[in-house]
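Predict structure. Input: NAD(P)-dependent alcohol dehydrogenase, 363 residues.
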Amino acid sequence: MKIRAAVARAREPFRIEDVELDEPRDDEVLVEVEACGICHTDLSAKEHDYGTPLPAVLGHEGVGRIVALGAGVTRFAVGERVVMSFGACGRCPSCVAELPPYCRHARDFNLFGRRLAGSSPISRAGQPLTGHFFGQSSFASHAVAAAHNLVRLADDLPPELMTSLACGVQTGAGAVVNVLRAEPHDAIGVFGCGTVGLSAVMAAKVAGCARIVAVDVRAGRLEHARALGATDVVDGSQVDLGAALKKLGGLTLAFDNTGRPEVIEAAYNSLHSRGRMVLAGLSARGAGLTLDLNRLMASGRSLRGTVEGDSDPRTFIPQLIDWYRRGELRLDALVTTYPFEQINEAAADMLAGRVIKPVLRMS
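Output follows.
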């Protein structure tokens, strides 16, 4: 079928073009996309940071309605609204252990944008495009999505607010809930207050953390963080970060999504004994850390990374929806909507910090 899609080429603006989309294969569905969030991952993939083959149709935070089922799909029905999350095979040891972010085939689905057999459902003028990005490629009017990464949505849930549950929100909230396992006695620092960081702030508030320290270099982001639950804010462009964290009494937990070594080191050094830190930010190629290994050993601190907040979307996204319905997850405070045709303006506004989470409306 012929669809409209935003085609990504390196160092060029997105171009909305007519392309061909195949019918869904086994364990796939065809989704009419209603809305899709833009994530920094999409823009990094566009510039070859991840090795995603271009030209490509990107987009990995799609919400829409199923219009056709491939063979073997029994959990969903035509007409149901779904959020499309990251790709995973559902059968490897990590998937069986309910840790699909570490799927054996994650690179194929989520970075290289291809089915396990190497094919793509999208082509243009007879030539294949990368079209299975994160198992969906939802910068388009329609997407063929892997059924394993779908989560059912009720009809009353606003599609533009549900998009970021697919990646950004579940990464930030999952890092706090699933990885750090924050508790009321904790003092947590959140470094970087975009979609991921602000979601972490809200999750820390839900967890009842005694102190929630938000760190950013944009005053507007810090105002958002305070409104969403931060007890303290630190403008990293105005103060010595290490000294500021020490003045606040240090941290028991830290979550970084800046990917900046100097920020990570300052956060790590602020941890109390047996403090825990998790990283979710993309760093520059070859970036490294300088840590005092004896202090690491003697303090019992831990430092680890996370993908998608160690979340299983099929169980964690419904939990996030419960928070949203209770007013504890202020998705409306994150989202700014744009018509699909304004994808380049939306991406530019996100990179400039003018908006937190741009979401494209396809209709």
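Residues 262 and 289 are 8 Å apart (CA to CA).
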